[in-house]
């Protein structure tokens, strides 16, 4: 491994550390200029977070949020990839799907909550569907856009060799769209995470990180608010960097050689 590769490998962790340090510095400076009941400092928030982590209620809320995230995000990825690849082989369907996405993704996912609550009532189902909707659009759109860049000569060659429509999707389109698919999955995760926290704050049902944040805000507990915000931010970063980035490097390892 060359020296430039080693140096490049250190840059990303260093950038993450500097970004965290900058955010904490700004937070503490703001806390020094405002009363404690408006903006608590870092230490009181960390103490509150330490107490919360030792309680079972914290893990109940965390498990509830992760279960909703996993269900909605998983449904969105499966449907987004399937519809995106199907659109690759059906030109008219691709145009229809593209227009549907353009129209519906202009609506905030949280706008669907009243309708889903009327249809399904209070429970996990409306929240999971909101998360799935938020993540579906970037997942499907990234796959659709990637299929348009597949070389026509590869498609023609596969057809000459007798490939069926499913064979084209599996052997030509899917390998070609993999980089954009992974990028779309990461974008979809960001949408899904924000939708999850928003819908949990809005729907007064069950335990979750968003519900805990909303309760702290309703009671004027700013230390609890900042503790919940810290958990939400750190957990999202950990999922993205420790899970999604590792999957990305494993599936696209030839690009990191």
From TrEMBL:
Residues annotated as domain ABC transmembrane type-1: 62-244
Transmembrane segments: 72-93, 100-122, 128-147, 168-189, 225-244
SUPFAM superfamilies assigned to the protein according to its UniProt record, in alphabetical order: MetI-like
Matches recorded under CDD domains: TM_PBP2
Gene Ontology CC annotations of this record: plasma membrane
Membrane topology category: Multi-pass membrane protein
Gene3D superfamilies: MetI-like
BP terms from Gene Ontology: transmembrane transport
Pfam families, alphabetized: BPD_transp_1 (PF00528)
Superkingdom classification of source: Bacteria
This protein's UniProt keywords: Cell membrane, Membrane, Transmembrane, Transmembrane helix, Transport
Subcellular location: Cell membrane
Family recorded in the similarity comment: Belongs to the binding-protein-dependent transport system permease family.
Stated name of the protein: Putative ABC transporter permease protein
Species the sequence originates in: Advenella mimigardefordensis (strain DSM 17166 / LMG 22922 / DPN7)
């Amino acid at each position: 491994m060359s020296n430039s590769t080693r140096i490049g490998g250190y840059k990303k962790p260093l950038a993450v550390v500097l970004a965290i340090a900058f955010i904490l510095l700004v937070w503490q400076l703001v806390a020094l200029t405002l009363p404690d009941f408006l903006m608590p400092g870092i230490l009181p928030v960390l103490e509150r977070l330490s107490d919360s982590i030792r309680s079972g209620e914290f893990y109940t809320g965390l498990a509830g949020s992760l279960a909703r995230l996993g269900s909605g995000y998983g449904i969105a990825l499966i449907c987004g990839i399937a519809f995106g690849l199907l659109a690759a082989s059906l030109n008219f369907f691709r145009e229809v799907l593209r227009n549907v996405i353009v129209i519906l993704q202009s609506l905030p996912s949280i706008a669907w909550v009243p309708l889903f609550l009327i249809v399904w009532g209070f429970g996990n189902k409306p929240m999971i569907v909101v998360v799935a909707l938020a993540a579906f659009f970037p997942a499907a759109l990234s796959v659709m856009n990637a299929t348009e860049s597949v070389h026509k000569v590869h498609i023609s060659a596969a057809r000459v060799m007798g490939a069926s429509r499913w064979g084209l999707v599996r052997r030509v389109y899917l390998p070609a769209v993999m980089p954009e698919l992974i990028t779309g999955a990461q974008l979809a995760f960001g949408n899904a995470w924000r939708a999850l926290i928003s819908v949990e704050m809005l729907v007064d049902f069950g335990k979750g990180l968003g519900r805990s944040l909303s309760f702290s805000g309703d009671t004027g507990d700013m230390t609890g608010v900042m503790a919940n915000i810290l958990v939400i931010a750190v957990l999202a970063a950990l999922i993205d960097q420790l899970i999604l980035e590792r999957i990305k490097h494993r599936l696209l390892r030839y690009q990191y050689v």
